[in-house]
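Sequence design from tokenized structure. All designs in this work follow the same two-part layout: the structure record, then the generated sequence. An example of the structure record is given first.
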């Protein structure tokens, strides 16, 4: 009896020791990403653009009241030269994105601020500045011509490719509420020459493409059949008239 009690007590002790050796720590969780700091009113937008070490641009927008109006400022920090400059201006619409490039490859960066508005004519605006040392040179962004605007209803997509500013948007057929997407897009490439924008359309106008396809389309089957029937009737008429002439000569 004593032996059985001793063995039972030994087994319970071993079991308790095993349970106590288990790791009771909670599994480690991946560290959560730091939250993006919220802007305090009246500021609405902020983006930091680092052109090179020591050269950075903080682009901000602010305003109270209407979301369709406000102002922007570009804070240029030259920490190497201990120079700090501010460029400001009025805004039409809200900032969508900011782009940085050197389109004319002169070593002076350009900051391009894209905004979107509810304007039914322009839809989008671009505020462009070229920075030379501590000076900001404003460059007027070209508006779409009447032919370039044909079928335009906004939804612009801007991006930088090979140092150039690219722009594309869907083309609509019709006008007003009845306008529908045609499935085609119009694309432009913007460059810089002599502090002025250059524009190159990389895709043909959708109406021109449709017209060209229609002009080069093969003749309809009915037209071909009609033409074939006309040729056959002409041959038959010619054959019968020739036969009549032969009969007349034989009788004579």
């Amino acid at each position: 009896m004593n032996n059985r009690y001793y063995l039972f007590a030994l087994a319970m002790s071993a079991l308790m020791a095993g349970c106590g050796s288990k790791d009771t720590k909670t599994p480690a969780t991946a560290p959560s990403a730091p939250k993006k700091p919220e802007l305090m009113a009246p500021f609405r937008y902020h983006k930091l653009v680092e052109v090179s070490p020591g050269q950075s641009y903080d682009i901000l927008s602010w305003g109270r009241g209407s979301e369709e109006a406000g102002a922007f400022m570009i804070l240029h920090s030259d920490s190497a030269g201990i120079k700090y400059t501010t460029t400001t201006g009025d805004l039409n619409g809200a900032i969508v994105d900011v782009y940085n490039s050197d389109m004319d490859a002169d070593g002076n960066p350009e900051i391009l601020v894209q905004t979107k508005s509810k304007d039914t004519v322009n839809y989008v605006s671009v505020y462009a500045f070229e920075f030379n040392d501590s000076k900001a040179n404003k460059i007027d962004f070209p508006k779409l011509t009447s032919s370039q605007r044909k079928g335009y209803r906004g939804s612009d997509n801007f991006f930088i490719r090979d140092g150039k500013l690219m722009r594309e948007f869907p083309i609509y057929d019709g006008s007003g509420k009845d306008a529908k997407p045609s499935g085609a897009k119009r694309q432009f490439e913007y460059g810089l020459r002599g502090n002025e924008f250059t524009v190159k359309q990389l895709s043909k106008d959708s109406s021109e493409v449709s017209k060209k396809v229609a002009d080069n389309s093969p003749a309809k089957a009915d037209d071909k059949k009609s033409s074939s029937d006309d040729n056959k009737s002409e041959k038959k008429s010619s054959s019968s008239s020739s036969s009549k002439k032969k009969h007349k000569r034989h009788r004579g």
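The radius of gyration is 38 Å. We note this feature because it recurs in several other targets discussed in the main text.
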